[in-house]
Amino acid sequence: MRQPKDKAATRTTLSSLVNRAVERIGPPPSRGGERAAATRARLRRLLARNTVVWPHRDAYVVGYPKVGNTWFQVMLRMALVRYYNLDEAWLSQVLHPQREGDEPPPAHVPHIEVTYDMTSFPEGDYPRVQRDHRRYAGKRVVLLIRDPKDTLVSLYMHYAYRDEATPYWGTVDELVYDREFGLTKYLQFYRAWHRDRRRPSGIHLVRYEDMQADTAGVFRRAAEFLGMRGISDAIIDECIAFGSFDNMRRMERENTLGIVALAPSPRGIEKAYKVRRGVVGGYRDHLSEATIAYIDRRVRRELPPVYGYPRAAAVAPVAPTQARRGLGGS
To answer: What is the largest CA-CA distance in the chain?
Structure first.
């Protein structure tokens, strides 16, 4: 695949993307004064260094934050490298977004973007989550989802202990009800995808709980949907090992891949790890019974049934090492 010929236009597009991203993920200017301004400037520099504009995408992997995005993309990186016989150096740059200076994948490799595709919690802005899905028209989309109770607990851990740009100071139960961080935004995100489900050429739904229970089967079906027909058992096994909890924790600690999604936290404490527990049903250790009932009630009423939540039967928490071939992160 050739690079865009008009480099000036590419730089303009990149600058526009960076500015929009900072507006979305940075703290509002009204919050924090000089500290907020400094954080926004730091985000702008970071994004400019770590963003490359590709001329097109063949497919997308989309998921709300903390639904298994990093786990899935780590396995997908290995699958693409092995299936298309690439050097392992491509592990860091075979997916979009890339870092400055990275080359797009070879022409025979599908160009896939992994994205939350949403405004990342700007103040009071949840109605703007995913205004439309026009850029997905005619594309294949793997849509990741996870039980909202586990999702919101993991999100709380991220904003309470890992993220320094947009810290959350409330309790985990308070986050669920929070207009900026909580359940309403999750529901709006997945309702919007259901509304626009016919815009892509196809949507392949991947539930985190299913991927924990049968990692090989669920990941194989997703990989084949993305174009890797007949992917071998040996490659699938290598992807699962590469995406194992222990290996992802090691790669995060050592910054092995050098990607933002698996960068080590400057705080260096257990709760600040991106790869934290990967437990199905772990929300019971954190949420009150009243909050659990509130989430389930709203999910039954507002989330389209096709997503499969709330789960039909309550089960005991399942750790990654206990699930059948399930080895996960967050």
So the answer is: 58
Q: Between 117 and 18, where is the model more confident?
A: 117
Tell me the sheet residues that pair with 60: 113, 141
pLDDT digits (tens, 9 = 90+) for 192-249: 999 999 999 999 999 999 999 999 999 999 999 999 999 999 999 999 999 998 898 8
Domain boundaries, the chain: 7-51, 55-307
Q: pLDDT tens for residues 57-103?
A: 899 999 999 999 999 999 999 999 999 999 999 998 898 876 667 78
Task: Tell me the C-alpha distance between 133 and 119, whole Å.
Answer: 13
CB 126, CB 156: distance < 8 Å? no
CB 111, CB 105: distance < 8 Å: yes
How many residues are there in the chain? 330
The Cα 250–Cα 263 span in angstroms is 11
Cα separation, 197 vs 193, whole angstroms: 6
- DSSP letter for 159, please: I
- Superfamily grouping for domain 55-307: P-loop containing nucleotide triphosphate hydrolases (3.40.50.300)
Name the residue with tokens 């903390």: 66
What tokens appear for 207 in the block? 């539930």
Q: Which amino acid is at 299?
A: V
CB 245 within 8 A of CB 328: yes
Calpha distance 120→134 (Å, rounded): 19
Task: Please tell me whether residue 145 adopts helix, strand or coil conformation.
Answer: strand
> How high is the pLDDT of residue 5?
39
Determine the Cα angle at 148 with ends 143 and 150, to 5°: 110
